[in-house]
Structure formats: structure tokens, C-alpha cells
Design brief:
Length: about 200
Amino acid sequence: MHTPAFSPRYEKALQFAARAHRQQVRKGTDIPYITHAVHVSVVLLRYGFDEDVVIAGLLHDVVEDCGVAPHELEAIFGAEVARLVAAASERKRNGGSERPWEERKTEAIAHLRRGDPKIAALKAADALHNIHSIIADLTLVGAAVWQRFKRGPDQMLWYYREILAAVRDTLGDHPIVAELARAIADLEHTVHEYNGEK
């Protein structure tokens, strides 16, 4: 039986994500944040991941950045989507204070190393789009792009290499891993070009 291309559930998730992110733009730009969420979901769709993973791609930042509770996602989109989004979300604050970047990223990598293929795919797609966005911004504005982030190129490259190692351990030679590896290599090359070495 043919599966319809139109998905009411995906449409509902797209609307939910667009509303949640409506006031947000990509760092240092006027580009609506929803473009990132959509592209992450498209990457997952193109690689044939199931609809729960694709929808989690659309929603992956709504808990971390928009204050949506996981139980709200579960009520609307089911337990698996809520589980995936929660797993991809960093806890940015501890009480009233912001947690250090290194602490958050180390914790995120530790969660990723637990070996869940769906979470690995979600994180790979997220990293893939973020890396390509940084490369595009480096090409446009040069090394000034790092002022948009909490850390500079060395720390960012460390983080993306750690993501790659973790997803490779889980997904092996899946094509999304190979694409992520190529993107990181491209970022390294671009960083060298625009980090005072051009």
C-alpha cells in the first residue's frame, strides 16, 4: 500500500515549531530560526528515518530554546517524539545561573554516547546544518562570525569532532556520518582560510 506524501502529523509539527520559534532568528542574522529546524527534518527525511525522527528534527529545539515542556510534546506528538526531543535538549540553566558551555557540551556528548541510533541521527542532522551555516557565514563575514558564539573555532571544532565520533560509534558507516565528516573537514578548511590565514 502506498503511503501518502502528505502527513497531517508533520503539518501539525511544522506549525507547532514555527509558532514556538516565531520570535527567533539565527545568530547574528535576520534569518527566521525555523529554517534550521526545517532543514534538520529534511536531512532526516532524505536519509529515510521514520516520521518520529523527522518530526523530532522539526521540534528538536523547542524544549531547549522555547520553554516547551516534554510532556506537552508527548500529549500532541507521542512518547517517542518527546523522548527524542528531550534527549537532544541541553539544560542551559542551573537554578538561576547559566551553565558553562563546556559543561553543557560535555554532558550532551555523554548522552549521545549511550548509543541510541535515532538520537545519533537527530544530532548528526542538527550538527550538519549548523556546520554548513557557519561555513556560509564565515564566507560572508569572515572570522567576525565567532563573535556570535559563546566559544571560538577551536572549541566549536572540538565539539563537532566529538559529535562525529559519538554518532560514528552508534551509526557506523551510515551515509549521514560520512556527510557529517565531510562537513567538519570543510569547516576546518574554512576556519584556516578565514582565521587570519587567508
